[in-house]
Amino acid sequence: xxxxxxxxxxxxxxxxxxxxxxxxxxxxxxxxxxxxxxxxxxxxxxxxxxxxxxxxxxxxxxxxxxxxxxxxxxxxxxxxxxxxxxxxxxxxxxxxxxxxxxxxxxxxxxxxxxxxxxxxxxxxxxxxxxxxxxxxxxxxxxxxxxxxxxxxxxxxxxxxxxxxxxxxxxxxxxxxxxxxxxxxxxx
Length: 187
Ligand SMILES: [Fe+2]
Known about the structure:
The chain has helices at 27-35, 72-81, 84-93; strands at 18-22, 58-62, 100-108, 114-117, 123-130, 140-144, 147-151, 158-163, 168-171, 178-186. The strands form 2 sheets. Strands 1-8-5-10-3-2 form a 6-stranded antiparallel sheet, with no helix packed on it. The protein has a 4-stranded antiparallel sheet with strand order 4-9-6-7, with no helix packed on it. The chain has 187 residues and is of the alpha+beta class. The chain has a single domain, classed as Jelly Rolls (Sandwich). It starts with 17 loop residues before the first strand and ends with a strand. The mean pLDDT is 92. β6 and β7 form a beta hairpin. It binds fe (ii) ion.
């Protein structure tokens, strides 16, 4: 699977509930996206975020098709999501033949946080591409019952895969702007 966007071979597709990997996103694409967001996101304010416990502003931008408003690196990323390579990869990774996906860039201003919750049961999984270099806070935390069992690193080109079924998670309060592209895989 040759690709100029993802290092597919870096991923162990048989992970259990969550899996963190570095440099799944090719380094040049990572830095290009990192340095070319945020674009004009202020029009994209989220008003109804179910699990947020703060009043801090959050923004989301749909990345469902390329746009001349986006940097080339973002458009390459989006095109890859709809490629045969990525489709085959998702089938293997999430053990499904049929799925739909969407992608969003989320930007959270400081002091956002998300309480522990389970995602919608129509969702199969998420892939989170963290776009931060010196973020403080804002980690995703996975829980087993009421005990936190894994805290992600959201810096350093880290990507986290999660199966959403029975997988409780939260987001720690962030003290600097937090950016992440989330690809949702739906039944
Ligand atoms: Fe969630």
